[in-house]
Specification:
This protein has 237 residues and is mainly α. It is built from ten helices and no strands. The protein has helices at residues 3-8, 10-35, 42-53, 56-87, 102-105, 107-126, 151-159, 162-189, 198-224, 229-236. The longest helix is centred in the N-terminal third of the chain and has 32 residues, at 56-87. The termini are far apart.
Amino acid sequence: MNAAKLFTSSVGKKFIMAATGLALFLFVFLHLVGNLQVFLGWEELNRYGAFLQGNVELLWPARIALLLIVSLHIWSAVKLTQENRAARPQPYVQHEVVAASYASRTMFMSGLIILAFIIFHLLHFTAQVQAVNFTGKNFADLQDAKGRHDVFAMMVLGFQKPLVAGFYIVAMFLLFLHLSHGLGAMFQSLGWKSPAYAPLINRFAAVVSWLIFLGYVSIPVAIQLGYGEAHLKEVLK
C-alpha cells in the first residue's frame, strides 16, 4: 500500500489506527511495569524516575514519537467515524444491536474521555502543575533522602485525594473497555486474525485488558487504603 492510499483509503486509515494502537498498547504495558515499582518502595521507584529524567536524549525523542502516534491514532479514529456516519446518514427507525459489544459501540466516546484523562495526568504528574494537584503542595519540591525527585511521595500525595483516585479508576475502566475491543480489532486490521483462532485472540484481549486495568487501579486503591503514608509523613515533616 502506497503512502497516498494509506492516508486516503478506509483500509489505510484502519491500518494506521491498528499500528498506532499496537504502539500505544506497548506503551501502556511498559508504563504499567514502571508504575508498579511503587510497590517495591520509594528507593526503587525514585531510582527508576531519576533514570528516566537523567536520559533526556532518550526521553524527549520518545515523548515526541508518542505525541505523533497519539495524534495519528486520534486522526484515523475521527476520519473513520466520519466515514461511517456519512455512509449511513439516516438513522434506522428501529436500531437493534446484534453482534456489537458495548465496548465496540463506545470506542470513540471512551477514547475522547481517555484523551481528557491523559491531558490531566500529564499536567498532574509529568508537568507537575500545582493548580491541578489539589493538594496545596508543589510536587516539584518533593525530594527523597538522596536528593532525588520523590516520585513515590508525589504518587502517594496525588492519589490520597479521593476525586483524583476516582477519576483515575474510571479512566482505567474506560481504557479496559477500549483495549478489550481494540486489541481484537487491531489483529484483524493488521491481517493477523483468522476465523480459526479469532476466539483465542478475543479471550487474550479480554484477559490482558483486565490485567492492565487491575494493575493500574491497584495503585490508587492501595494508597487510599494507607499505603505509603509513613514515607510521605517523613518527607513532609
